[in-house]
Prior knowledge:
Blueprint: H1 10-23, H2 26-31, H3 37-47, H4 52-63, H5 66-70, H6 72-87, H7 94-101, H8 109-121, E1 125-126, E2 130-134, E3 160-164, E4 166-169, E5 172-181, E6 199-202, E7 212-219, E8 222-229, H9 235-244, E9 251-253, H10 261-264, H11 267-273, E10 284-296, E11 299-307, E12 313-318, E13 324-325, H12 327-332, E14 344-346, E15 354-359, E16 363-367, H13 371-374, H14 378-386, E17 390-394, H15 405-413, E18 420-424, H16 428-432, E19 440-445, E20 458-463, E21 473-476, E22 484-486
Parallel strand pairs: 5-15, 6-9, 8-14, 9-10, 16-17, 17-18
Antiparallel strand pairs: 1-2, 2-3, 4-5, 6-21, 7-8, 10-11, 11-12, 13-14, 15-16, 18-19, 19-20, 20-22
Amino acid sequence: MTTNTSRRTPATVFLELWIYSSAEKTAARVRANAPCPVTHKGARAALAMEELHEVMARLAALRDGPEFAATPLDASFVLMREIDRIFGLVHPREVVVAPTHGTHAKIPKWLRDLKQSRREEGQYYASEDFLVIPRGPLRRRARDPNASNTDSVADRFAYLTLAPKVVFENGRRVPVRMCVIGTDAAGGSKPGKSPGSEAVGFVPIAEQPGDVILNCRNEHGQFLVECGTRPDLQCAAHFMQAIERSEPVDIAIAPELVMPHGHASLLPNLIARSPAKLHAKPRLYVAGSGATNDKENAQSWNEGTVLNAAGCVLWTQRKVQQAGINKDRALQFGLPDPGPGRMVFEDNASGDEIVVADVGGMGRCIVLICQDLEAKPFSGEMLKEFQPDWIFVPILDPELRSGGWAHRRALALSTDSHARFLVSTSTALTRATGSTGDPCCGLAVGPQADVDGDVGRRYAVVSSEHPDSPKLARVKWKSADTYWRTSTTT
């Protein structure tokens, strides 16, 4: 196996044993229950040593020993459990780690070095195909060992996991980029006062008919539509004003295609100059998405931006899969009839990577822009393999509702993870379709299982708390507010 580093560590051993055990039949893994006391005691003693070369020498001796020769799968799981256990000392999931290991547990030097390596490189170890990373989610407990109703190698472990370096969108390889963001105020995200009970603000920005502009062109018989906002709509200022006039939120999220690059570039300065005190600002500004200035084949990318309370851009994410608009919806929006069996497609370039951001104060975060939530097997792989805490979903859709596509898709994906989904849309197209009342602009969907105080299958669909512009809709997790309901859709 070719690796990106010549240094072998216990993370390397974990990867090798994972690949070996995963290749075995499920029935064999289920029967692999021998205690292997020599491996158990020897691994614990070896991993407690300070120097890496001593640790690796002892682990190598164990793997050459009689228990591995007699019961290799059983011994592999015993050794993997010990490696997983000690990596719990440096796992970001503090609320779980502290009771398990004790607050004064000693961290050996080799593990401190790997902790620093992950901060810099995003992972403990990388092979050609896999990343060894902390098991997600990072701010709540991991999935139960029996959550899959079968033997799952991943669910056996609480603190370490193997994740792919590439996921697939309709057969296309999409590289995964891991980044680790700290808790410092300037370049990271500080922990909140009430972890797990975060407040979220959904800011529609484009509120009225005419705020969203659709420009359609015909390229060799294929209609392509470019979506944006009217030229005089001050998107960045509108976003900030909606946040500043409201009660503080931990996360503020805007919709898709309402924050073009020229406006997104104003946000760092606007956030830094905001009159709100630092502790009262959102810990994450998920500034929706919009067209980039740079292009590929004359098409802009549909790019989202995430910033912190100091106005620092933490990461950006480009939409991977283009959305299509069917005939009925196209005609409703005043677009050309695409013809029998055809659709009008989004006029944007395709993104070339997906970012997984481990944010110190918030957990593991992924941005899936609109159609990327629906993309298969892409979104399912991301949820299952990386076990995020948060999925941010900016969309441009006039039907954000209970039982709608976003709600159904989030609920389906929540069977494989404990993630929380935040879906934000504008209200301009909803109003343009003749909808009456105050359209909903925010959807929050929690995990299907009961997790750390989150009641399973809970969701909320909310509209603005302000009757006038600029608008903001709010949810607060674990609150008793009446907007929380129980999903009955499937």
